[in-house]
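Weekly modeling sync, notes
Attendees: AB, CL, MP (scribe)

Item 1: holo prediction request
CL wants a bound-state model with magnesium ion before deciding which constructs to order. AB pointed out that an apo prediction alone won't tell us much about the pocket. Agreed to run with the ligand included and paste results into these notes for async review.

Input as submitted:
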Amino acid sequence: MALLTVEHLNVMYHHRGEVVRAVEDVSFAVEAGEVFALVGESGSGKSSVALALTKLLPASASVSGCVRLGQQSLLESSEDDLRAIRGGKIAYVFQDPSTSLNPVLTIGAQLCEAIELHTEFRGDEARRRAVEWLRDVGLAMPQRQLEAYPHQLSGGMQQRVMLAMALAASPSLLVADEPTTALDVTIQVQILRLVRDLQRRLNLSVLLICHDLTVVERMAHRVGVMSEGRLVECGTVEQILRHPAHPSTQQLLRYRCAISLQGGHG
Ligand SMILES: Nc1ncnc2c1ncn2[C@@H]1O[C@H](COP(=O)(O)OP(=O)(O)OP(=O)(O)O)[C@@H](O)[C@H]1O
Ligand SMILES: [Mg+2]
């Protein structure tokens, strides 16, 4: 059975009497231990899919269809259940880490809170786990970083902290929405490589949202291509990259960036 099943998902935004159909009849599944990439041009509905999974959409949006995590039907879950699932079984990492971290709390306070909220570890044990996670995501002097405030860290370091917070909850699924777009190219490579290494080590399931097919080639097992709210093509990375059938996929292939995760930096 798939870990995440999305069937006939629709997302509409209602704005001043107008309706934007952001996601239309999208169906796909993510298997356990799999990296499934959603790609597509800007505005094609990728983030709307990611947010709809746990009803994180703004009040102006309406969502229909079916989303299941294992056996649990998410769109029908109560707000309390969804709150526990967000950051718990389904962890998110977004594009800009600075908007996800609380500027007035130390890294340690935020990381320990996430650990205490979603695991059985408390107090000193939670702090020990926090140090281990900061080390796992490649932060030097993790003990010292616990006392730091977000503004004292670089964008790349902040995104590493976000990953630590996401993974500390032992999620079943990590949803990473353009996790490196706000970062320098060199740092992007480091963070993507880190996500890939952690995914392999922890056998994580990842929904990776991305517009760069080179990244997809290096990181994902399967890929779905979105265009104008619809999933226009879906298959293994090899199938889709070797034999792109849809014009949107062909367009993405023409413009893919020259990011390589092999060799080079860090
Ligand atoms: N809060 C909102 N209110 C109204 N329309 C929205 C809202 N959020 C997204 N949309 C619209 O829904 C469509 C899909 O947007 P979405 O952000 O899901 O695309 P995306 O594929 O993630 O794009 P990008 O690659 O730029 O992040 C777009 O037409 C967008 O303008
Ligand atoms: Mg987006």
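Recorded for review: The longest helix spans residues 185-202.
Action items: CL to compare against the apo run; MP to circulate these notes.
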